[in-house]
Amino acid sequence: MPKLNENYLNLKESYLFSEIGHRVSTYIAANPDKNVIRLGIGDVTLPIGSEIIAELHEGVNALASADTFKGYGPEQGYDFLRNAIVDYYKRNDVLIESDEVFVSDGAKSDTGNITELFAGDNTILIPDPVYPVYVDTNIMNGQNITYLDATEDNDFLPMPDFKLHADIIYICSPNNPTGAAYNKEQLKIWVDYALENDAIILYDSAYECFITDTSLPRSIYAIEGSKKCAIEFCSLSKTAGFTGTRCGYTIVPKSLKFTASTGDVLSLNAMWNRRQTTKFNGVSYIVQKGAAAVFSVEGMAQCKNNIKYYQENARIISEGLARKNIRYFGGINSPYVWFKCPNEMDSWDFFDYLLANAQIVGTPGAGFGKNGQKFFRLTSFGSRESTLEAMERIDILF
Ligand code: MLT
Questions:
Q1: pLDDT band for position 13 (50/70/90)?
Q2: Which of the residues 75, 102, 109, 129 has an alpha carbon 20 to 30 A from that of 205?
Q3: Of 24, 38, 131, 136, which is best to mutate to test ligand 1, by the most ligand atoms within 8 angstroms of its C-beta?
């Protein structure tokens, strides 16, 4: 009999969004005539821009001729895409090198897979509330997690305690679920803390395209010293509507080096390259063709139009909540609006209440951690019509 990874016993029974999906399917099966509005999981609804679609077609066409056919590609991603990403960073005044960029099928996989580079006895700091993947993947590996409270008192932006040591620090900015975003000064303090502790920051920038305040950093590498202490994960899911298409990238600077117990100095870039070449055969050529077009001037302009549409939805949600005196956060540099459940309700109770009485699906804050217990998240990724309709229903309900 195989001995099982019993760390799985320490996980919640199902992944947050699977649990939501299950509750919604049960409700719909019992109430087939109801019009359910889904503002739960952050899944985009607008079609992908035409510039990008044209390149996806080009990718398909290439596979139809022997002279342009592509088989296995480089596990790290095609140079044309890695270089397009480097140029995109350069346009935002951040310099990275193409062999520091690893193309993948998304930030979810990479933020989970990166845990393989680290031993099991690290001190890991994870904010609470947080994107559940960071927590669940560390529980799967039997890691001990120290939670950092992100609350109204610190504007959901916890800062390091220099008296306490950490080895691995997770930061997501703009944050999922709270929508809060660190400024450069705050991130510099995190970088200083990581350098002082010889720690690594795992920085998720999946929502950088939603930043409207130009003083806010879109990448951890806008902060001095960060290339010695940070890996950055990003995704085209929200930037370009690739939630189904799947493409993201991880930046592992070559200057990230740590000493092993043997005394050997190991490069995380080389380790990640070793891991990816062994376990991953790369993203399809077709998808990478489309992804490269995201970073072209025209492609990015189309992406930005879609993002503006979602930002307007976020404004509609925020204003609707404000009208009802419901305290909300986020929604400005983020597609998520995070708010206090009315009447001090518990977030899963509020989830059931909202579904049963207004047929709106949101995400209960408790799914992101204990500090989310009394909070709820709505996404701006729905259609304009469904967002307006949802806020009308909330208007009537409260
Ligand atoms: C969310 O709703 O939190 C995200 O869409 C989940 C994800 O990106 O995997």
A1: confident
A2: 75
A3: 131
